[in-house]
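HUMAN: Mind sharing a backbone?

ASSISTANT:
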Amino acid sequence: MPDNSLPDELISEILWPALKISDNVFSNTSHVSPFSSYGESTSAYLLVCKSWLRVATPLLYSVVVLRSKAQAKALAAALSGNPQLGRFIKKLRVEGGFGPSMQTVLRCSPNITDLFLTLEIFSSDHTGGLCKGLSFINPSRLILQNFRRKALDNKMVSQMLEALAKASSKWNNLVVFDCPFQGAYGAAARTLLPAITARKLHTLTIQSIWDASWAWSAFKTCPLEVIRVKFPFDSTHLDDMLNKDPKLLSLLKYTEELEPEHQFQALEPVLEHPLIAPSLDPFFIPLANAPKEVRDEIWARILWFATPSGSRKLALLLVSKTFYRLALPFYYEQVVIRGAHQLSLMSSIMARKTTLGPRIRTLTLAGGAYDDSADFEKSSEVKSPKADAIVAIFSRTNNLVEFGNGTSFTESSALIHMGHCISWDAFETLAACSGSTLRKFLGHIQPREPDVSPTVFNNLQALQTLWWRCRVKFSDVIGVSAHALPSLEVLRISFADPSFLSVLIEMQLPSLRHVILPDPFMNQEIFFMTHGFKMTELSLLDGVFESLGVKLFEFCPNLSILMLSDKFAIKPPNFEHLHPPHKVPSLVEIVFQAQHWISTKESESRWHTFFTNFNPQYLSGLRDMRFNCYAWPTNERDIAKSYWVRWAEVMLSQGVSLIDKKGSKWRPRLKIR
């Protein structure tokens, strides 16, 4: 049988991008470890086949990150069983003390060149093995993490600092030191710095420019070539800060990749576009010999791609008359109106240039476009200039695809400022002029008296997403077509008159899939009886869920995602209501949309009872529970204290994963047996 396997060299090149850990990530000293994720371990690649195991093993062990005692114990066992594995380890990151196993790990890893240690060690985390093992290695780079201004003062930290000082005095390979100290006077600095400064360091990393002067003085005996500053800063007073020391200024360098939370002003401005050399012919005109129609077609296509969003898109229109003529329609495809002045100006422009209205596809009335509370209080018979301007704009936009008022569809609060309103007349005009194209409406409509007719919905044939925020009362359901809103997929109601549900009940709504209902409404049971079987996603306030009870699963047998909203997550939903009378295999995820988690003994007890008693016997398809109010802990100490972790592992025994607000599923960590 022919051997069709790839050479090991090619397999190594294929696997290396998936297994490598960049040096910037390895040396990251931020408060939250970049390795505190809950994804699949890269060791899974070794299980694919024997050739991958053979080739990937040295790649996997080249950089080792230890984040728990169980990991340290497992690594020690692996290295003891196969001493050859320890020779592959070049970089070792230890995010704790991790007990006696660390002595074995360090003794079996003689080729370590880069060592990362943390001073964030609590008294319960023993450092004895780490202290004894430091004498077995001779790294060339030492990285220390201490995100507190003052290092923790306990026996474990003191022991490690003393052992590190003793071992580093014999590390003749040490030439790079990442210093966490912000001065040479703390207990940790006084213990360690004398041994480190005795080494022949050529590279020193400091936290900020404010540490440069003392570090330069403390390490003056070292043959430094580079002093790397982690966090950039404004260099206006750099000379004065460093006492105009030319030698020190010549050594300073700055990190190329910044942590997101520390992206301060850099020393040099960053050009947004690369410099382009000017043409050798100053009179050169692109496409000069092409027919005008061809030139316009080509330039229009280029400008369609080049026209940016935001305030900078005006710059393209000012390049030339040709650019102005061709790019003007693209400029008005997405219009954002802020303030009454822009509203009036936009209305007058559209009145003069009648061809612009059909070009507008997205229109947003941002804060202040209609913010006169006096106008809001006026009845429909009293017209205001702002209301007239909005109606005039809608009457000239017959291709509008999306309308909003600057608030996100995912905004959880239903309390929208009164200024983000359009009149009922404006809504009717919008439906009449753009009803065949409008796919998304996220507006806030001012109510009108007397009662209105629901026939306006007959015009909205293309509408897919409707966020209804209007207390207008519909006189009756006469005139509304059963075929109104045929494309509606997503319906969110923040507040409405009960007659609105009566209108929806008269429609067929064949495309309806996702409903967000925050408050109990009259006729809500009839609404769910009529349309519930179509819904695959449903978001309810806790009160609505309680009022519907187990009937919800009878009304909505095809639900795949159920979202329950409770502002503070003080108590779980009624346990009985999550036990439907019959199986609902379609439900795969329950989302708890709480904004805040209030940790009290009472709330903890309620949720503990909920999780321990939860039995998805009738929710056989349930796989996930998502909580938008909590994030998984990021270190071993917090994980051991977290009751959320305990609840997650209880649910995993039922085949259900808990997901935090970052979208990460809890994955059980390696445990010591």
Q: What stands out?
A: Residues 292-306 form the longest helix (15 residues).
